[in-house]
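Technical annex B. To support the medicinal chemistry partners, we prepared a structural model of the target in complex with glycinamide ribonucleotide, based solely on the information shown next.
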Amino acid sequence: MTKNVAIFISGGGSNMMALVQAMKAPNFDAKPALVLSNERLAVGLTKAKLQDIPTVVVDHRQHGKNRMAFEEAIGRALKPNDIDIICLAGFMRILSAGFINNWRHRMLNIHPSLLPKYKGLDTHQRAIDAGDKIAGCSVHEVTAELDGGPVLEQASVPVRPNDTGATLAARVLVEEHRIYPKVLRTFAARPAPSKLFG
Ligand code: GAR
């Protein structure tokens, strides 16, 4: 059965687009059912609309510090779309353990470092500052530990002597676009875990 995928973004949505393009392959067991952004002005929303993918904005600011209310609003947005899998793709909000556990074994994230190194933000500059010769990206299942879920795939790129955070990020992003669709393909083809929510 074709799985319905919700892709959560906050910005440019290049990983979202890599997933969307990959899902067009006839033997890909998933389709993009919804793109959700917490940022009204996220460029990725426009890209998704051009692909005729339903989009929704759930603005965290409208809920102040009330993360539960924010996540309830996300839940309401997902509900009518019969979502099977959530892909976090540059989604820059931290989700609560309660939300994540409801989606366990059904939520993926792409992170721009070779986990377990450099969880959190500013990964490329931290790799440069540490003098690392290799940087990269990881696709992992999402668990309640931030950037700590089981790693399903990684790709590495060399750090060049004159790299800035931006040049390194651009080189890592190319690899993100390669490995995230690959992992989603395998993930979507597994027998579906039972739904707790969604
Ligand atoms: C990507 O590099 C992604 O790995 C990173 O944000 C960028 C989003 O780019 N995600 C995180 O840092 C999550 N902690 P995109 O919007 O063009 O896909």
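Notes passed to the chemistry partners:
Residues 9, 11-15, 44, 89-90, 110-112, 173, 176 surround glycinamide ribonucleotide (CB under 6 Å).
The chain has a mean pLDDT of 96.
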